[in-house]
Q: What sequence folds into this?
């Protein structure tokens, strides 16, 4: 073992044969020291000594060459940066390795150096004949070093396949600076070589700075593509924190070769890194071959960037990102309208290479984006994209624009599969509180199984989800999901907003949409705006206690449970819409713009609308096909069960019912059905809850016979009201498929409960219509004894007062009047208007008394008996 106390002794010892050299004093070095063999350099204990560059010396302290190996332990190498001008382009790193190995071991420190070239602390120069290796272990440290170009602490350009950098133990790179790679810079310049970097143990890369890329690490293989794979590995408790760069605050990874991989399984966080541009913790660019990132157990926390607060991935060739048991929290994207992806920002610009993301047992929480995608912003381009999310929590993320939790979109075939996960408390300033998915032109699928979307909020549309097919198609299936307690503040879709020309959504296997609010807009539970798509509820889905509109607005308050503008809605047997509320129209469902609703056995129950359609409001040329199911216990001002507006159609056929579980209610009128459109029915009907006909065009149309026992209770209306002329009011009519009606059809109709005494329902002339018409009562005249009369034989409640005339005279009798009984009875002289019932009038005759002889005309004097019969009170 050699002990040295000055530069001469040190140079001599390095040229000698001793494998161990100990410093016994601080040494100022004035010339480079070559290392061509294996040697260990340390301080004599208990001392701790420093090798420093002299003010006049700017080159490397050590040059390791030709298979040489240098181990440093308990020693400081100081570059005396303050004595070297940054204008001096001869400044070089502390150590240059050119075909050798460097080991920084316990208590070794490289510090305070300035290099005008690569590697502020260490430069590993490519050597095709001898591999280069840097291993930092123990508590070794590189700090305060600067490179004008790349690698503030260290830079490596591999020359062989064995070239490696490994950081282990408690090794640290801290407070170094470079244009690229503030801490480390690795890049292959050979098509035949890749790069390898491993950080393990309790390694720390912290508070380094790069003016361009890679505040902590800048890493790439051969950038022309076609080279071997390069690998950057973080494992153990390796930590990357507090670094800064324009792109890639913590790590900048340029991927261009098949198999290039960033593999992180470190249990220490990547935290508090900052990028003014993109990628607070990690920036990856993939140019020629697909990028690969594997994260296992990694925590990425409190990073900040203009875009991609935690991770930014831009690929021209597809990518694969796998994350398992990871946490991304409190990361931020802050560049105003460009600040997307508070946690992750990912874009695939390839037209042929697919992208694939999978997150398993991960937490994405409290991330923020000043634009879109609070936790994730995903742009999949025209190639296929698969996104899997399993057993994950996406919670309390926020975006100023779209996608509080997740924003995703693309023009290719997209497949999103979410299972056993939770989107809770996320918020979007505009749309998609939890998820915003917009398909561009491809055919995409979104499947969610056992996923909870709870307590999310959107400033505009889609409190939990906003999904859109774009110019392609989107098929979504929510199975065993809960969409509860979400809010859309200033537009529609408190729970879900679905739109685009061809978006279809299936709610299946006990999926619950409940307690959601569209505060000013429409569709408290679900808002649909798709011309060719469908919304389907299977036999177990439920939409309950949602609310559309909490205050007066210019357009809102429609569809407490569902608002369709337009959509084809299918409610299968067993599904339930209950206890939903609409400030104005359609407590359960509001339909407009040629929507179609098929009720195949669902219950629409206990919903409320402030104005029209407690159960259903059908408007704007829309159609309701109700072949089974029930509408009961709903309430509105008008049309408690159904409000069918002008130009719209309702078909109630087969097993459909109204009010079977309890009557609907209207605060003003039309408790059961208000009809101002077209209403078609047949079969076994029970509309005892009431049917309100607005005008002649809104009568009941029969497409087939009404079964025996059917009941259709008419309500009073402006159209269905007595007319003084007694003209028939048409209330039912045949159709081309069933033109001739039967008496049984007419028997099902009931006249309104008020004002129609003396009116009846009957077939009209030709049996093509059902009339509400005054009853024609008969008047029979008895005991005429051959005499004739001129009185009418019939009358109605509308007939003016009939003054009955006496019959023609009968010889030997005089007419005593018409009576309502053969004997005694009541004298009838007039049949008053409004009378009802058939009448039987009996002529009553009295025989004439024998006449007295007629005396000649003379003056009758008082007292003459012969005149007494002419005078009353005459006494004989």
A:
């Amino acid at each position: 073992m050699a002990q040295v106390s000055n530069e001469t002794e040190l140079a001599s010892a390095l040229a000698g044969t001793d494998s161990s050299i100990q410093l016994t004093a601080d040494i100022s070095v004035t010339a480079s020291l070559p290392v061509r063999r294996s040697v260990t350099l340390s301080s004599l204990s208990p001392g701790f000594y420093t090798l420093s560059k002299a003010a006049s010396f700017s080159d490397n302290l050590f040059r390791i060459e030709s298979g040489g190996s240098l181990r440093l332990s308990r020693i400081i190498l100081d570059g005396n940066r303050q004595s070297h001008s940054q204008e001096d382009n001869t400044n070089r790193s502390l150590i240059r390795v050119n075909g050798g190995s460097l080991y920084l071991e316990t208590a070794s420190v490289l510090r305070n150096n300035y290099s005008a070239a690569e590697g502020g602390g260490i430069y590993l120069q490519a050597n095709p004949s001898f591999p280069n290796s840097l291993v930092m272990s123990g508590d070794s440290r590189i700090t305060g070093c600067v490179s004008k170009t790349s690698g503030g602490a260290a830079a490596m350009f591999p020359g062989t396949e064995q070239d490696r950098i490994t950081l282990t133990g408690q090794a640290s790179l801290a407070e170094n600076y470079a244009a690229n790679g503030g801490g480390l810079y690795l890049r292959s310049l050979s098509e035949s070589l890749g790069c390898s970097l491993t950080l393990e143990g309790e390694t720390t890369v912290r508070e380094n700075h790069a003016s361009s890329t890679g505040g902590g690490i800048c890493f790439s293989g051969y950038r022309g593509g076609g080279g071997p794979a390069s690998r950057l590995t973080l494992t153990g408790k390796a930590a990357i924190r507090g670094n800064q760069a324009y792109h890639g605050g913590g790590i900048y990874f340029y991927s261009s070769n098949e198999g290039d991989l960033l593999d992180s399984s470190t249990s220490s966080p990547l935290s508090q890194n900052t990028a003014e541009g993109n990628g607070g913790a990690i920036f990856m660019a993939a140019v020629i071959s697909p990028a690969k990132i594997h994260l296992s157990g990694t925590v990425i926390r409190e990073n900040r960037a203009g875009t991609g607060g935690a991770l930014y991935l831009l690929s021209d060739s597809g990518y694969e990102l796998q994350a398992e048991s990871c946490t991304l929290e409190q990361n931020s994207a802050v560049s105003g309208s460009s600040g997307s992806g508070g946690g992750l920002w990912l874009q695939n610009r390839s037209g042929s290479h697919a992208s694939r993301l999978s997150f398993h047992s991960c937490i994405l929480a409290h991330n923020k984006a000043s634009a879109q995608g609070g936790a994730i912003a995903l742009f999949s381009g025209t190639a296929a994209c698969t996104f899997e999310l399993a057993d994950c929590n996406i919670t309390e993320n926020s975006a100023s624009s779209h996608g509080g939790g997740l924003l995703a979109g693309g023009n290719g075939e997209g497949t999103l599969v979410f299972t056993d996960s939770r989107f809770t408390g996320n918020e979007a300033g505009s749309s998609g509180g939890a998820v915003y998915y917009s398909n561009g032109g491809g055919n995409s699928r979104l499947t969610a199984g056992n996923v909870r979307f709870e307590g999310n909020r959107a400033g505009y549309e889609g409190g939990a989800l906003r999904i859109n097919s774009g110019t392609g198609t989107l098929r979504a299936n929510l199975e065993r999901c809960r969409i509860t307690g979400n809010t859309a503040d200033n537009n529609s879709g408190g729970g879900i907003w679905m739109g685009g020309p061809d978006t279809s959504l299936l709610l299946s296997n006990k999926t619950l949409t409940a307690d959601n609010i569209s505060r000013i807009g429409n569709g408290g539970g679900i808002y649909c705006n798709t011309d060719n798509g469908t919304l389907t509820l299977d036999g177990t889905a439920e939409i309950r206690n949602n609310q559309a509109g909490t205050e007066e607005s210019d357009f809102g308050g429609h569809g407490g449970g569902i608002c369709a503008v337009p959509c084809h809605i299918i409610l299968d047997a067993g599904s339930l819409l209950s206890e939903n509320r609409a400030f104005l129209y359609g407590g359960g469902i509001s339909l407009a713009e040629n929507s179609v609703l098929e009720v195949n056995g669902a219950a629409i129950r206990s919903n409320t609308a402030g104005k029209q359609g407690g159960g259903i409001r059908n408007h704007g040329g829309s159609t309701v096909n109700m072949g089974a199911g029930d509408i009961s216990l709903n309430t509105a001002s008008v049309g408690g069960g159904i409000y069918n507006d002008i130009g719209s159609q309702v078909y109630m056929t087969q097993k459909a019912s109204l009010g079977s579980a309890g009557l609907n209610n209207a605060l003003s009128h039309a408790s059961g059905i208000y009809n101002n459109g077209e209403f078609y029915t047949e079969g076994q009907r029970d509309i005892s809850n009431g049917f309100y006909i607005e005008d002649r065009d809104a009568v009941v149309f029969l497409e087939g016979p009404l079964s025996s026992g059917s009941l259709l209770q008419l309500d009073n209306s402006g159209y269905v009201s007595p007319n003084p002329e007694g003209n028939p009011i048409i209330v039912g009519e045949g159709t081309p498929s069933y033109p001739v009606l039967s008496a049984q059809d007419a028997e099902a109709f009931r006249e309104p409960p008020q004002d129609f005494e003396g009116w009846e329902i009957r077939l009209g002339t030709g049996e093509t219509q059902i009339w509400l018409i005054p009853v024609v009562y008969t008047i029979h005249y008895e005991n005429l004894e051959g005499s004739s009369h001129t009185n009418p034989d019939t009358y109605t409640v509308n007939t003016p007062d009939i003054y009955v005339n006496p019959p023609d005279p009968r010889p030997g009798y005089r007419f005593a009047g018409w009576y309502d009984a053969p004997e005694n009875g009541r004298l009838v002289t007039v049949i008053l208007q409004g009378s009802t019932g058939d009448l039987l009038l009996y002529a009553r005759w009295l025989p004439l008394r024998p006449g007295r002889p007629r005396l000649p005309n003379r003056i009758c004097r008082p007292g003459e008996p012969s005149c007494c019969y002419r005078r009353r009170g005459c006494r004989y």
In short: The first strand starts at residue 2 and ends at 4. Residues 868-876 have pLDDT under 50 and may be disordered. The chain has two helices and 99 strands. The two ends are 187 Å apart (CA to CA).
